[in-house]
Amino acid sequence: MTIPAPATATAVPSVDRVIIRFAGDSGDGVQTIGDQLGLTSAVAGNDIATLPDFPAEIRAPAGTIYGVSGFQMQFASTATLTAGDAPDVLVVFNPAALKKNIADLPKGGTIIADSSGFVPRNLEMVGYTANPLNDGSLAGFQVHQVDFTGLTVAALKPLGIVGSAASRCANFFALGLTYWLYSRPLDATITFINDKFKNKPEVITANLTALKAGWHYGETTEAFQARVQVPRDESVKPGTYRSVNGNQALSMGLVTAAHKAGRELFFSGYPITPASDILQQLSGLRALGVKTLQAEDEIAAIGAALGASYAGSIGVTASAGPGLDLKSEFLGLAVAVELPLVVINVQRGGPSTGLPTKMEQADLLHALFSRHGESPIPVIAARSPADAFECAIEAVRIAVRTRTPVILLCDGNIAFGSEPWRIPDPASFAPIDCNFHTDPATFQPFQRDEKYLARPWAIPGTPGLEHRIGGLEKANITGHISYDPDNHQLMTDLRAAKVERIADSYPATEVTGDASGDVLAISWGSPYGPVLTAVRHLRAGGAKVSHVQLRHLNPLPKDLGEIIGRFTRVLIPENNCGQLSKLVRAKYLVDAVGFNQVRGLPFKVADIEQAIRNLLPTPIAKGT
Amino acid sequence: MSDRKALTRKDFISGQDVRWCPSCGDYAILSVVQGLLPEIGVDKEKIVFVSGIGCSSRFPFYVNTFGFHTLHGRAPTVATGIKLANPELDLWLVTGDGDGFSIGGNHMIHLLRRNPGIKVLLLNNRIYGLTKGQYSPTSPAGLKTKSSPGGSLDHPVNPCSLALGAEATFIARSTDKDLKHLAATLRVAAAHKGTSFVEILQNCVIYNDGTWDEVYAKEKREEAQLLVEHGKPLRFGKDKAKGIRQKGFGFEIVVLGENGVTEGDLVVHDQSINDPAYHVLLSRLGCDSEGPMAMGVLRQVARAPYEVQLDASIAEAKAKRPNAGLADLYRDFGKAPMWTV
Asked: Does residue A194 surpass a pLDDT of 60?
């Protein structure tokens, strides 16, 4: 079989962006084909952003609503920061997937449905009394019924591949059809299939045949009029790229930081969604000197990391909110003993077990305040998958320089979402100076340096530096146990001042848009994409709105108050009930307005635009 | 050990005021440890004492080595991290019955099964001392304390039996009374490769005074203690006149010379059997079953310490990919495809 050369694509009309969502049973391979379309689009020069959406259950009963797994992505010929508000095209493998997702598809949108999944049993299971593909209830949408499974089975039968070996390739048939629809080459996916199943030649044959059959189906039937192409994004900076998700970026950032510090990375974790990937990924990097420990629980994970830091390694642990609850105790000890430690919280919906696989950013106040006593900890937050790489390095740098635990906030959206990442030159990152103390003559365990107020890092094995540390209050300089009232006041003040000083090393806060105006939108974490996109849209329509993204949540940048003062109104969109809003209102005594959603999903750009519009002095035309 | 001036007991006294109650059993244990450290052949700066919270956990403050007074029950986690990060360090973990077997029970189990090179000293006084006298997980049922005025309802945990359940590779028992025996036991513990667990019966003079008198009071100890030695028959009592014989799946106490019992009928102590069944019977004697309490090294088996296995796996991975570096990592990690713009 050969695939027509992309020359045919030149006749295809261009659009600047496409948003597509795949949805099916957890076992339908939806995530796999989503990843493949993302990769192929990136290779074709588009900017992409993806949003996987899968259930917490591993294989929920087939055909149920709660077993539906989804994958939305946007690929565009201009910079794209989100997976898109609503899909243009919805590809569904069964009635449950249609029922769960149809409300998100705007009228006029395209539905491509695997007709083989719309059998009476599946329809009844989700409460359809008639087949919605035929009963007129989808009027206003462009509905295409394609028998993914039947056509796949038919294509594979001549090769002697039958039964489930054939039918489970239906996802690649759907992907092939999608590639035809968007004039995408098959090369990257062909390489993927050959590599992934390299020891199973019959599986390679089956999947490649299904993929090509899907393409040919698009080419030979006249059912699809809506074929389009998305030209390359010419603004993309030259370089070698790969796709990266947030958890991968964190792992690579941690390894980079440890190398830059010239120390071993010691990572201990306990399996928890959505952070388990980091433990898994790092456990495979022994060749780079990475030591990992799968601890018996969340407490042990941070305890071992702190022990490793004490011994001179770069100690790191990662978890989600439920794990951070358990780590609070050790975070307090890390504050007291003033040792470097990085704690990553890949946030998910709460409270309690909450929504394990859904995003939320409701752990900011937890990160700042969930310890007894006065125990300040620096907090930073990643805004996107690629940004997580730099944040991991930044977290280690702060932890080592200031001798402090650092909490790095991420979320499920960043952890599982992926974007193109321009592969950096390892030499471009500055070294991290551990500055171990070695001289017994000048050693006092709690003698601070003048610039950062950091105490010496005096690791066991250093002759003459034998000393004792612990959670009891220590006398300034000597570190001996002290219950003296004046000393406790002094040490409390010093610990606070030490963290405040971290802000001295921040670069000037970047304001996107004008330096002053009607509305300043401030975001942190993954709302970066939708908020910045909304601000760009409104600015294109003349609105005097600007944007600030905060990487450092504690301490906040020193220039933030002055920036806020140059705007009439302040809007803070967050996927929580108003946590940064509280901090900003308290610190700057400004009437910051929150825009808050906790739906387990990222913001829609349109919703942010409306929230900004509500604060603008004169109405701005919708849709600018 | 490097070629330096020989260390003495004095080198291991930190100079901090020792704040235990007068006559506390901890003093004797501290003194034995300080006396032992110069003999173990480790440079002072490579020795680290780690503890949790409680009276016994103040131990590191009094030893002039590196010391880390951590959190209640959590010392095993910190000690594990230290040992894995730097296997050259000599780790000592000092804990108590509440710290090690109540709030830290889970960590203790996992420390023992992983078997990193850490010496665990459990100072068991069967009471919460620092919180001023509540019953602990090792308190005998019925013990009247501030939090059990009608007598404790809790069935106690036997630390050595629990350690056996976790298949610890070294398990020993001694007391704060027989310091020669304690020193000898700790010397063997210090040389063990892996986690060595030593339960030390210790008196709390304030809240549980005399708790171990039934075991080690001068007039009782011959009958109440069974000093075990590898390869020797299990004999105890005045003139070692009594012994332990196997009966069914358990033990029975016999008197040599009575009913034709000879030394050849007695169980011969074997600390090296991998299957812990025999050691469990031994650990229960005098606690959960009738008889004298076994003292000395109950069990010592060989299993590669965790840090040795971890380092070996790293060496193996590095040998396979000797030039692995960041540039490769960025390209290969997660097998994500690349493209050039």
From this structure: yes
Residues 6+ apart with CB under 8 A from A348: A273, A274, A320, A321, A354, A355, A356, A357, A358, A359, A360, A411, A412
Domains of chain B: 7-211+304-341 (3.40.50.970), 222-296 (no CATH)
* Residue with the two structure tokens 């780690």: B50
Q: Cα–Cα distance between B106 and A169 in angstroms, integer?
A: 46
* Inter-helix orientation angle A321-337/A298-310, to 10°: 30
Strand order in the sheet with A47-53: A47-53, A68-76, A17-25, A89-92, A110-114, A142-146
Mutate to test the interface with A, among B13, B82, B93 (most CBs of A within 10 A): B82
pLDDT score of A594 more than 90? yes
Q: Does B321 touch chain A (CB under 8 A)?
A: yes
- Stretch 99-158 of chain B: residues touching chain A, C-beta under 8 Å: 106-107, 109-110
ipTM of the complex: 0.97
Window from B13-17, B71-75, B193-197 with minimum mean pLDDT: B13-17
Inter-chain CB proximity B48 and A460 less than 8 Å: yes
CA distance A261 to A397: 9
Q: Write down how long chain A is.
A: 624
Residues from chain A that touch B16, judged by Cβ atoms under 8 A, are 468, 480-481
- Around Cβ B38, how many Cβ atoms within 10 Å? 16
Q: What is the pLDDT of residues A15-71, one digit of tens each?
A: 999 999 999 998 889 999 999 999 899 888 899 998 888 877 777 788 999 999 999
A443 and A464 Cβ atoms separated by less than 8 Å: yes
* Structural domains of chain A ordered from first start: 6-220 (3.40.920.10), 242-428 (3.40.50.970), 440-504 (no CATH), 517-613 (3.40.50.920)
Using the beta-carbon criterion (under 8 Å), do A470 and B70 form an inter-chain contact? Answer: yes
Instruction: For B3-36, write each residue's pLDDT tens digit.
Output: 678 999 999 999 889 999 999 999 999 999 999 9
The predicted model scores a pTM of 0.94
**Residue in the block written with tokens 């059993």:** B25
Strands (E), A415-508: 418-422, 468-470
Going by the DSSP 8-state scheme, the letter that residue A455 receives in this structure is P
SS3 of residue A91 by DSSP: strand
